[in-house]
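Anyone able to model this chain together with 1,3-dihydroxyacetonephosphate?
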Amino acid sequence: MRTKLIAGNWKMNGSLADNEQLCKAILAGMNTSQTAGVAVCAPAVYLSQLQNLLSGTAIALGSQDISSHEKGAFTGELSAAMLKEFGVRYAIVGHSERRQYHGETDTAVALKAKAALAAGITPIVCVGESLAERESDKTEEVVKRQLAAVIHENGHCISEIVVAYEPVWAIGTGKTATPEMAQAVHAVLRAQLHAASSVAAERVQILYGGSMNAANAASLLSMADIDGGLIGGAALKAADFLSIIAAAN
Ligand code: 13P
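re: yes, here you go
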């Protein structure tokens, strides 16, 4: 049985004061007997602050990106080894905002996942179709292509990743995929993992992301292949994030 994972993606939000308040409120509201894993993926400049605030707590720390390179002349990038020094346990790779605004290709994303895995950081690999792709019935083709690149580069290590299905049209729009729509895509991804490795199919958590909130979390999380959530807007409000965590327990 896979445990659930609720990960907040703070995107480019936060401040020293807000982060402290948010983390303290989440920690204070979390049930000590909860089974779901919880993580927050913060802007890189705050990782040191959050390492101090979260070490020894039930909230794991994540980054929002990671370099595929080990070191060297890559201005602005952060290596897996650097992130590891700041207690980073998860790294989001291939978020649609990075694919869209930074031109990240499927192969670039797969190599980022590989660099994370080599350093013992769990990549949260994001896949998802645009509205135009859904409307032209390309959803399955797109998410399979995106995941295939990651499987191709990572071989048997694929069982150590987390996948997040984030339909682009549902991100920050208030439009959520219905539980049935999300489940259908998650089942496709699970079958693809199974074809690569039965161990991976069994182990890999497949999260849903895209306007998940306190009101819709329970129904999404009740689906067979939805193993958690990658939460944007609702992760910035302690009460909402806590409700989603509670729905996963
Ligand atoms: P929202 O929850 O704000 O739609 O964002 C989802 C997301 O992109 C998480 O990575």
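The chain is about 45% helix and 15% strand.
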